[in-house]
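Hi, here's the filled form for the chain we discussed.

Project: internal
Contact: R.S.
Residues: 236
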Amino acid sequence: MAKILDGIVVENDLFLQYHAFQNNGEYDWTIVNALLHFFKKSIVAPVEQYAVCGVALPKNQEVMLRKCGLKGKSLEELALLHTPYKVVLSTSKNHYPYINILNQPWLENNYSHHLYPKDPRDKAQRHLKDLCAAASKISIYDAFLDAEGVKLLGKILPRKRLEIACSGESPQEMAALSSLCPLWSVNQIPHQNAIHDRYLEIDGQTEVIISSGFRFLQSSQKDCSYIVRHKTRERF
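And the returned structure, exactly as it came back:
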């Protein structure tokens, strides 16, 4: 079985830009900034990429790369066989497995948090509370919002004037949410058959995508993941 390395594969121009940046050489900040956005623990590069790009490769590092099988493979093969992400960063190509980091990349690199059953929820709740703290408008979509989900919302939403659009189908849960703060104006979002995930949208700019429902950011009965990303399109 090929050795999997926690890193990313890049095309030659990005390889050169990265090493110029690392060694205080001349580099294009726009390119390096985009590269750092997608960067993982390291760059996974074959022995040949160092030679082609004229980047010095210490002998001990070359021996290590050879032992890991990072010789005689194309960049696509390297990404597929030796990285967990299976993609190659590029400044020109945007067809799989390439990601054009400068122009409409089809894959994103966002912050995420995975919680296993019985994991404490306190850090996740504090994070969501801070994300919502300055908001004036919040949109909530969870077709199965229940009492546990409402309890979570009571913890993370700021007790101030706040416009809330919520998808809750249960009149009891909508009423329970409205009762938590007299300064909140709660309106219902119609059910969306095409939406499966759960969303917390903050001032139309930031969205939190939640895997298994708001209730499991309150209850530790099951696992739950959430992703924080900059909003790029309308959902509701």
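Let me know if anything looks off before we file it.
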